[in-house]
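Thanks for the sequence, V.! I ran Response regulator transcription factor right away. Repeating your input here for the record:
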Amino acid sequence: MVRVLIAEDMHMLRKALVSLIQLEAGLEIVAELSSGSDIVPTALAIRPDVAVLDIDLPGTDGITAAAALHTAVPDCRTLILTSLGRPGNLRRALAAHVSGFLPKDSDPDALCAAIRKVASGERVIDPELALATLDSGPSPLTDREQEVLQLAAEGHEPAHIAGRLHLSSGTVRNYLTSAVTKLNARNRVDAIRIAREAGWLNA
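Predicted structure:
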């Protein structure tokens, strides 16, 4: 019996997933959660075989939770469900040791088959999402540009970023300007949006 934890914040969708999986022989729902913050504590308590996580959860997003889960409960494999076809999300998911990555509109039979495959140690990645990720290419930003843009995305002003990274405010502004230019963005906010959608910044 494959013991499954479900984390999905939309009540109706979560109940539909639970009902669907419970109908399948060999699959058992052992926990259903609505917040990403509850995933690791619950998994530590009940030790599921597979965690099926929505990518966009309140508290802690699904990919961040998957990375924490890999460290805290390494025997539990994770499968991410996404309605966001952003190529960078797959890169982040693979870096977080996710075993499965599927769109939310996947066929129910395909989802249940994916849970079984993930439980047996296989990796299941939606082919279209994989191709989109390959087509998107690497980040054009340098490590420092990415670091500065990440801090800006978290709401920090250039003066604060400068103090944190031991740089001058002018140097920080230069990095931000360079990032905006390389991403063909209109401004800093647009650059952050582009980099996030490509998976070059954390959400």
